[in-house]
Amino acid sequence: VTALAPPGARTTVPSAVSGAGRSSSVAWMVLPALIVFIAFGVVPLLGVVGLSFTTWDGIGAITPSGLTSWTYVLTDPGLPHAVWVTFLIMVLSWLVQTPVSLLLGVFLAGRQRYRGFLAVLYFIPLLLSSAAIAITYKALLDPNFGLGAGLGFPLLQQDWLGQGSLAVGVVVFVVSWQFIPFHTLIYQGGVRQIPRSMFEAAELDGAGRLRQFFSITLPQLKYTIIASSTLILVGSLTYFDLIFVLTGGGPADATRTLALAMYKLGFQANLMGPASAIAVILVLVGLALALLMRRLGGDGADSQLEGA
Amino acid sequence: MAVPLAGSALAACGTSGPSQAGAGGGGGAAATGGATYWYLSGQPSEGVRTNALKRFNDANPNDQIQGTTFQNDAYKTRIRTAVGANQAPTIIWGWGGGTLRSYVQAGQVEDLSGWFDQNAAVKSRLFSSAFAPATVNGKIYAMPAETVQPIILYWNKRVFEKVGAQPPQSWGDVMNLVPKFNAAGVAPFSLGGQSRWTNMMWLEFLFDRIGGSDVFQAVADGQQGAWSNPSAIDALTKVQDLVKADGFIKGFSSITADSNADLALLYTDKAAMMLHGSWTYGTMSSDGGDFVSGGNLGYMNFPPVEGGKGEPTATTGNPAQYLSISSKATDAQKETAKKFFATGVLADAEIQDWIGTGGVPIVNGADAKLTGSKDADFLNFVYGVASKAKSFPQSWDQALSPTAAEKLLDNISQLFQLSISPQQFADSMNGVIGQ
User: Fold this and answer.
1) In contact, A157 and A166? CB cutoff 8 Å
2) Which residues sit opposite B35 in a β-bridge?
3) Would the CB atoms of B254 and A161 count as touching at under 8 Å?
4) Which residue of A84, A303, B144, B222 sits 20 to 30 Å from the alpha carbon of A262, by its own alpha carbon?
5) What are the tens digits of pLDDT across the range B169-205?
6) Which residues, including other chains, have CB under 8 Å from residue B60's CB and lie 6 or more apart?
7) Among A232, A247, A246, CA closest to A2
8) Chain B contacts of A268, Cβ < 8 Å?
9) CA distance A74 to A80
10) Which chain B residue shows the shortest CA-CA distance from A145?
11) What mean pLDDT comes out for the span B35-64?
């Protein structure tokens, strides 16, 4: 997951320090990040917007062609399907990742030593590259030479990547397997931030474990959940490497997300114009999602520690 | 073909970056503006290419060529980007056909027609069928090189013997063999369907056997509605019949050709037959234990279809590989490249090397050199298919423009997934004719 959008967590800008001399002296600190962002973020983005109004095969001349590329993309019957697959994978992977990493995070927030050991184990998938994970799972799920065939276990002997709905399920599973450790880490940190005094007070009042979880942990993790969800939702727009290696967008177009459709149009069909149009759509969807998640987080005025 | 030269089993999985090879004279060559040459990695072919280059560099101390190797799929995007950015190497390795045509249209490669006229001997020693994919609008833009690679119907003799079956002599036989093998618990055909061009080979033969070579030629020529030809619809229907009859191995649509799993299915007796390129022979003999050396691999040309108009001798595949010269190279670099074409490419030593890898070089009379090889039977068979073929069109995805080819592969995967009908396939493909 690449964090395109700033997490939805509230940012409390200390307004008291906005003295003119103070702010001008630190303003330059933003420069390095700003320069890098403009050079590698904004400028290419403008280039892509520009390219989406041209026709280009990657080697010939770039010819302006107005809305041709946009018409091509928007009338392509493959686009609604790609949008659908993208959102399906996005929603499913959120539904799988959020509860699992939340529970794991709460579990790992405990200070017991065996939990520290388990945390290290859970962390391992995050260390592997997406391509390596995809190749491994592809080998494991091979209907003829994979795990199912090797162990003679009929339930595992499905055509995992050869049937549309199964393939989507596998993609969601592998994505979750890869990123749950990351979100677990976020939740673990979030839980450890909650003042112990709240739990102690609840305990004195006779609240059980479950009651403490729903009445203290969950509400206190609101902003952590929003931050993690933003990363999952926006990040899922960019799932490419894993799906590309695992299924190549197949079978047929069952797992062809917007990112894959963009790659195929641009670098396999050499239609850079329409591919750029899809890229612009991806950016807009990502921005909209990030803004939406920020809205959900409120303006950050209400204190998380209210009543503490 | 997406992966015509899958050398070793894992070659395609690596993400090895470019590596320098066959460099002569260290930095001196680069400093004096020596020519550059990009080609594919993956053994055993890489070794043959590197050795040929090294021999040329050793023999020509003043005309050095700097070689750089790339992994197959990475090369395809890399070379296109380089050509587009006017950063192409002097010698561009390629597959000819539609990609070459796009280079020509962008003015990026040299017209070699005049050079071939002056050097008639260079041209006449090579298979004439190899020149069609190098020709755009009547002019030759590439030097054919390396080996001829027809598509072959392989069959597993062990499995056929166990089931008590005979190799198919017609499409009817194919369809009759399917239930027989399925009943015996063996998949009739192995197929690496996720790679898509693997499925395409079936259509290439069915189109040709049913309607003759004119059917696809009309598509390549950009005739409106060419995919709606009744022969085309018939071929598309027949292939779906085969899918519906469970003719292909279970899970074929998630098997890739890059991993060579499709070959493994054949040599581990899990599948009875396989339609694949002649380049897979070398991999099967190195990876399949005693499968090939024990004489268990049968091979034949694709059988005729009852009532079909096609020539039974016709084949399809890669008539050759191609070397073009970048038009952005300096005159000195171009001269070096031409010298390499005339004296280096497919010199006697390279011919022997290719034969050693189980390939048939595109040189007339190469059959005389095949006899000593341990693979002489197979090589003679390939030479026979290639030299006797009434027609030898290039693989569709190479013959068409990249845009049309991507659309074609996309539709083919849906056709094999049974998610579109033959008529929908034809309608969809008619939309990109001439693009």
Assistant:
1) no
2) B65
3) yes
4) B222
5) 999 999 999 999 999 999 999 999 888 999 999 999 9
6) B336, B339
7) A232
8) 402, 406
9) 9
10) B261
11) 85
Residue pair B125/B107 in contact by the 8 Å Cβ criterion: no
Query: In this structure, are residues B35 and B63 in contact, taking their beta carbons and an 8 Å threshold?
Result: yes
Read off φ and ψ for residue B119, nearest 5 degrees: -115, 60
Q: What is the CA radius of gyration of chain A?
A: 23
Residue A75 at interface with chain B, using a CB cutoff of 8 Å: no
With bands split at pLDDT 50, 70 and 90, how would you rate the model's confidence at A298? low
Instruction: Read off the tokens for A248.
Output: 């190549």
Alpha-carbon distance A271 to nearest alpha carbon in chain B (angstroms): 7
CA distances, A104 to each of A181, A186, B35, B152 (Å): 9, 10, 59, 54
- Position of tokens 């007070």? A201
Give the pair of three-digit tokens for residue B69. Answer: 């190797």
Kindly provide the residue ranges of all beta strands, DSSP E only, lying in B1-85, ordered along the sequence. Answer: 19-21, 35-40, 65-70
| A293–chain B nearest CA distance, Å | 36
- Per CB-CB distance under 8 Å, the chain B contacts of A160 are 251, 254
Distance from CA of A111 to the nearest CA of B (A): 41
Beta pairing, strands B187-190 & B271-277: parallel
Identity at B95, one-letter amino acid code? W
The phi-psi region of residue A280 (left if phi > 0; otherwise alpha if psi is between -120 and 50; otherwise beta) is alpha
pTM equals 0.82
Q: Which residues contact B10 (CB under 8 A, 6 or more apart)?
A: none
ipTM over 0.90: no
The DSSP bridge partners found for residue B298 are B155
Instruction: Provide the pairing of β-strand B147-156 with B271-277.
Output: antiparallel
What whole-number distance in Å separates Cα of residue A35 and Cα of residue B390?
Answer: 63
Whether the CB of A69 is below 8 Å from some CB of chain B: the reply is no
Q: Token pair 């022969």 is at which residue?
A: B231
Position A292, amino acid: L
Type of residue found at B344: G
Task: Tell me how close the Cα of A144 comes to any Cα of chain B, in angstroms.
Answer: 8
Amino acid in the structure at residue B277: G
Mark yes or no for CB contact A252/B253 under 8 Å: yes
DSSP letters, B300-367, are: EPPPPPTT--S-TT---EES-EEEEEBTTS-HHHHHHHHHIIIIITT-HHHHHHHHHTT-EESBTTGG
- Whether residue B81 and residue A58 make contact (CB cut-off 8 A), yes or no, is yes
Tokens encoding B52: 């040929």
Report the relative pairing of strands B35-40 and B91-94 from DSSP bridges: parallel
CA dihedral over B125, B129, B131, B133, signed as positive or negative: negative
A108-155 confidence digits (pLDDT tens): 888 788 888 888 888 888 888 889 999 999 889 888 888 887 887 777
